[in-house]
Amino acid sequence: MLVGGAVGVLIGAGAMLAFGVSERQQQAAGDEVVPQVLPSGATAVLTALRSASAVVDRGESTVWASPAAQTLGLVRDGRVASDEVLRAVRGVRVSGDPRALELQPRRRRGGPRVVLHVRIAPLTEDLVLIVAEDRSELARVDDVRRDFVANVSHELKTPVGALSLLAEAVEGASDDPEAVLRFAGRMQHEAARLASMVNELIELSRLQNDDPLSHASLVSVDDVVADAIDFVRMGALAKRIELVITGEHGLHVLGVREQLASALRNLIDNALAYSAERTRVVVATRSVPDPDDRSLHTVEISVADQGIGISDDDQGRVFERFYRVDPARSRATGGTGLGLAIVRNVCANHGGEVTIWSVEGSGSTFTLRLPALADELAPPIEGGVSPSVSRKVIS
């Protein structure tokens, strides 16, 4: 009897346990979120969007996500990856009002800064739409513009401040003719430096808003080299630096002669500024065939010096505006730090590029690479094939 009663109690307890489990399962099934389906035609519209997009259901799972949303890291493993966006989604679901926010995902070490403009709005009663626009490039341009304005302000303060101090010095030394002459010479130097900086800023601004190929003409590379050499001739004579022109004769490109001469002049000016006296600067020209299409050629104009050279770290930054490898030397020579930025812009506007090779203590070589004019469009060269020439200009 005792055993039978115990068995009955166990059976009753098991039945009650089974009933409780069944009831909880039914309740859980009632609370389960039913997968949502996008409204008719929504998929086609979302696919056509250029921005990254995703749709989130009540369970905070993504029922749809564009490839761009996953590439930008907005969605990962079927969920919204950003806690900030997820909080905004919950807020939109409660209020029903659209929201917008600026998101900057954590970037990898050394990677570019990513800036996303995210808009969130209700799509249906159960679904919330997320649209993200990549504004990283706009943010980068804004950073560059802001840095440029800050650099301009800083650089202009130096010669302006110097002129103010020198003017006070001249006033205070009015009874000392020698001091007045000395201060006046310094004022002329600072005024020339200020004028040069303003002119280069104007030129750089014009280059950034100009498309020379829209009003290009046939340009002789020989003429470009001659123009640049004429401009720097006195500087080379002052330092007794030998200027040598070598390479192929009769090459032509499409572009603006004044801009190309300005770029080459800046390269030669740099070579003279960073070279010691009684050294040599070589300007070489040649035509290089395209390895994939022998009918296409690139004109290379290189400027090689025997100067101080540039370190590997500095080589990646020499084309930045106001960047100077040797600030002290630049101040002494009146350099503005804008010359190589102008060179880079001229080359880019002409469909080319500028490269650098340098070894510290052994000199540097800057090379302009520009698309050559097609052979059938180039004028004939007297005497037939382009000869290789080499002549000393100044010694």
**Oligomeric state of this protein:** single chain
- Annotated CATH homologous superfamily of the largest domain: Histidine kinase-like ATPase, C-terminal domain
User: What name is given to the CATH topology of the largest domain?
Assistant: Heat Shock Protein 90
N- and C-termini, Cα separation = 128 Å
Structural class: alpha+beta
Integer average pLDDT: 77
> In sequence order, what are the helices and strands, one letter per element?
HHEEHEEHEEEHHEHEEHEEHHHEEE
- In what order do the strands lie side by side in the largest sheet? 13-14-12-11-9-15
| Poorly predicted sequence stretches spanning 5 or more consecutive residues | 1-35, 381-387
Shape: elongated
Our count of domains comes out at 3
Beta-strand fraction estimate: 15-25%
Can you count the helices? 11
CATH class of the largest domain: Alpha Beta
Sheet having the most strands: 6 strands, mixed
